[in-house]
Amino acid sequence: MAFQAPTESYNGKIREIKLGSAAQVAVGGENTLPFYTFEGSVPNGPKIAMEVFDTEPLGWADELKSVLGDVWGDPVAWAKKCESEFGADIICLQLAGTDPNGANRSVGDAVATVKAVLDAVSIPVIVYGSGNVDKDSEVLKAVAEATQGKNVVLGPAVEDNYKSIAAAAMGFGAKVAGETPIDVNMAKQLNILMSNLGIAVDNLLIDPSTGALGYGLEYCFSVNERIKLAALTQNDNMLQSPTISNLGKEVWKAKEAKISQEEAPQWGDQRKRGIIWETLTAVSVMLAGADLLIMRHPESVKLIKQTIAEFGI
Description:
The chain has a single domain, classed as Alpha-Beta Barrel (TIM Barrel). It has eleven helices and ten strands. It has helices at about 60-70, 75-85, 105-120, 135-145, 160-170, 185-195, 215-235, 250, 255-260, 270-290, 300-310, and strands at about 15-20, 25, 45-55, 90-95, 125-130, 155, 175-180, 205, 245, 290-295. An eight-stranded parallel β-sheet has the order 8-7-6-5-4-3-10-9. A two-stranded antiparallel ribbon has the order 1-2. This is Acetyl-CoA decarbonylase/synthase complex subunit delta.
């Protein structure tokens, strides 16, 4: 008698959201657990967004400089390289230079950078602020107005500035990534608050925060998994948004990715170490349910794309 593996079906489904305008990319849409194609439908495998910064990054590992250093300081060239050479599905433009505690670039400069990147690539663009809640409110409102019709994603919207960002997104047809500090209830509550303002849940993505391998990844995994289970098994409408894992920035600030081989010879090749650290973190968050990964090193992106392709999704 042939063995019939037991399967489950779920009464919930992750919303499919299309990003971009010229060449749209769909995220979400699954009605089963990650990679469980034997139990349900996974119409869109995890998508990869590659980081592009508006200013030259400081303090990054030498390995990153070896593959990205030729385009540092030129976000347009950087974005084009991510699309044409590295195979990014999406660009995540980080407006780190607008931070008042850093370069303090103006709103006008930020808008000009966003528009230049959008004109240079055909793939969708996510625009993330610097993390300064007051400046992000100002910058992202202006970005929303300047990119009307481009179907960009704005973020991160957090507890202290979600009202202004969500209102701007609603007014100018953008989507919003809401970020909360690794907590299921807070992720749900932020979506409730933004939807109460009037923004459609079809325009919301969840960024539940991410820890790198060895730096809270197990807790991050648990929270991502619980969000997915609540969406699928409890049909929780407010947790049925596609999820984002902004993992690149977390991985490449870990000492294991930055310390040289001379300083820690027992840790092996520094170049391989950083790439593997990012790849393993990415694999973990995919298994936990992340629909969109924000990554940094092109070799890690290549490995993750190969992994996704092997599952045929």
